[in-house]
Amino acid sequence: MDIKKINLANFGPANIRNFSIIAHIDHGKSTLADRLLEVTGTLTDRVKHEQFLDKLQVEKERGITVKAQTASMFYEYQGQHYLLNLIDTPGHVDFSYEVSRSLYACQGALLLVDASQGVQAQTMANFYLAFDQDLAIVPIINKIDMIAADPVRVGLELKQLFDFKPEELIKASAKAGIGIEDILQAVIERIPAPHAELEAPFKALLFDSWYDEYKGVICLIALKDGVVKKGDRVSLAGTGNNYEVLELGLMYPDQTPLDALYAGQVGYIITGMKTVKEARVGDTLYHTKQTVTPFPGFKPSKPMVFAGIYPIDNTEFDLLRDAIEKLTLNDASVTVEKKTSVALGLGFRCGFLGLLHMDVFKQRLEQEYNIFAIVTAPTVLYKVKLKYTGETIDIESPSDFPDPQKIEEIYEPMIDATIIAPKQYLGNILKLCQDKRGIQKDMSYLSEERLILRYQLPLNEVATDFYDKLKSLSSGYASFDYEESGYEPAKLVKMDMLLNGKPVDALSTIVHMDNAYDMGRELAERLKKVIQRQLFEVVIQAAIGAKILARETISPLRKNVTAKCYGGDISRKRKLLEKQKEGKKKMKQIGSVEVPHEAFLSILKKEE
Q: Do residues 475 and 146 touch, judged by C-beta distance below 8 A?
């Protein structure tokens, strides 16, 4: 269909449907989006390729959706033409903020469930995200053509968990193109039209944005009311700045310029914004000379995992700052704060929603901006209540840790975890959760073969290798989702690493008392491998206060001082050796241990 010949003014709110696709990771969202775009004629054979809406290199390499993408389609049903706006969302737990933001611009959602895997942890999380926003939900059982498919069992799970009736379920296969027309018809019949008024003053929600080297900031907007045209003056409620509309249009499926956008539609707008701070996601756009009540905005995301990002070379700090600014425009869930490290110099402390989120952010820095940075080990945000003042302070890193004498209580962040797994792996999963200091809250059977476990776990234990271990213990069949559940008191201590009795601040860590001995021994062994031998003995110790937990010794380099003695009295050799011994003792007292960069990284950097 030639979009230039279509008059968008003919598509009133009654002929518009805004919907997103939500599902657990790898249940076929991007493939279904491809088929919908093909069937509606939006994608031509010339530009068609698999997972068309997964545009980032990291998405193609990992086979996951990281960024929500929008595409508009036109579809004829019962003699009427409809404009359908589709938002393909990520499925992984770390990108749930992307999903919740995308749902603000929708009136309905397609809930996709794999016919062989059934309901997974993130399926439940995404269902409740959509349910909380009062969206119409259309359940679809996908991949029905697979050998292991069991749509009857999956249908029973959907009925048991979400109370869907059998007649509401659509059976489809996005890859084979089965049931695509049924899905499009269900979108029109079951998802309500947007509540929008064409005659009212222009008002739109800015729900996504990204940076283009040539055009500046591109904003994705959902029009609540009114009309916006090229050349109009528009303002942002958050900053009060006003701009001229230089270009606007639909994502059909890429940026397709048009003369105007109308109430109920979803499109992009370019106003010549040059800096990333101007386009705040959740802001309200309106005509400059009018007054409107702004949208409440999005609930800000709460970072769960913190990591330092430092340039490998300090001269690249400005490049790193610019790249992070542009990336955070595209990913508003990352928090950024400038920090200085004793070991690594000037850099940033960034907050992420999870470990995959952090990994993807680092990969995007490398691929999109050619910035190779050092990312330190992930940590979480602790709270410390002080004895005499009763004040509660936030602790992000060990260097912020107050004197133990002043601490009344330490609190660590907890999460409510949902694990869905086949019952034969139950023993392994229970042991893993127990090792990670988890408290079991509930266990119920989803079907004869699968069960749902609910645990309260410390975020610090999950932020390292929990997800990887869960996958390997369950042969990849377990799914995991979590949400924060506040703070609980914990026996946490600051562990110092001492070199010849002197603490090295940059090597300190916060650990739980139960794990302190194992952690101290491991760090001491790791440091022994990377610190080079000196001319004097080097003693590496892990200590909590005055208590030594672990010790490793690096023997000194020794010159053979008796080499020149060929025979003669033994006392001559002994005298030389005693003199050398005294020299070593004196050197140990005044000498400083050279700590290589790799030693800091072995502690700071997350284990590969």
A: no
Residue 368 and residue 387 in one domain: no
Give the count of alpha carbons within 13 A of 465, CB side only.
8
What Rg, from alpha-carbon coordinates, does the chain have? 30
321-373 confidence digits (pLDDT tens): 988 888 887 677 788 888 877 667 788 888 887 777 888 888 888 888 888 88
372 contacts: CB under 8 Å, gap ≥ 6: 312, 365, 366
Torsion of CA 417, 422, 423, 429, to 10 degrees: -40
Burial 427-452 (b: 16+ CB within 10 A, else e): ebbbebbeebbbeeeeeeebbeebbb
**Exposure pattern of 250-282 as b/e (b: 16+ CB <10 Å)?**
bbbbebeebebbbbbbbbbbbbebeebebbbbb
For residue 426, what is the DSSP state?
H
Q: Give the structural domain span for 239.
A: 203-287
Taking the C-alpha atoms of residue 402 and residue 508, their distance in angstroms, rounded to an integer, is: 13
Query: What is the 3-state secondary structure of 76-111?
Result: EECCEEEEEEEEECCCCHHHHHHHHHHHCCCCEEEE
CA angle (523 as vertex; 521, 526 as ends), nearest 5: 110
Residue 296 lies in a domain: no
- Orientation angle between helical segments 317-330 and 355-369, nearest 10 degrees: 120
pLDDT recorded at residue 138 = 93
Measured between alpha carbons, how far is 73 from 305 in angstroms, rounded to an integer?
38
Q: Report mean pLDDT in 10-residue bins for the chain, 608 residues.
A: 65 87 81 85 58 52 60 87 82 64 84 89 83 90 90 90 90 88 92 89 85 83 89 85 88 83 89 76 84 75 78 85 82 81 79 79 85 80 87 82 86 89 89 91 85 90 78 81 85 86 78 86 85 79 89 80 70 78 61 59 50
Quick one: 33 and 175 in the same domain? Answer: yes
Domain co-membership, 177 together with 218: no
Query: Does residue 253 have a cis bond before it (omega within 30 degrees)?
Result: yes
- Other beta carbons within 10 angstroms of residue 350's beta carbon come to 25
Q: How far apart are CA 397 and CA 111, in angstroms?
A: 40
What is the pLDDT at residue 291?
79
Distance CA 536, CA 191 (A): 76
Q: How is residue 361 written in tokens? A: 């952010």
**Residue 77 forms beta bridges with which residues?**
80
CA angle 175, 181, 186 (to 5 degrees): 115
Q: What is the total count of domains within the chain?
A: 5
Domain co-membership, 44 together with 142: yes
**CATH at 276:** 2.40.30.10
| Strands 16-23 and 108-114, sheet pairing | parallel
Q: How far apart are CA 544 and CA 525, in angstroms?
A: 17
Q: Which two three-digit tokens encode residue 372?
A: 């190779």
Q: Output the CA torsion sign for 253, 256, 258, 264.
A: positive
- Check residue 209 and give its pLDDT: 80
3-state secondary structure of 414: strand
Same structural domain, 426 and 321:
no
∠ CA 47-52-55, nearest 5°, is 110
Token output for 70: 């929008």
Of 332, 316, 303, residue with least CA distance to 369: 316
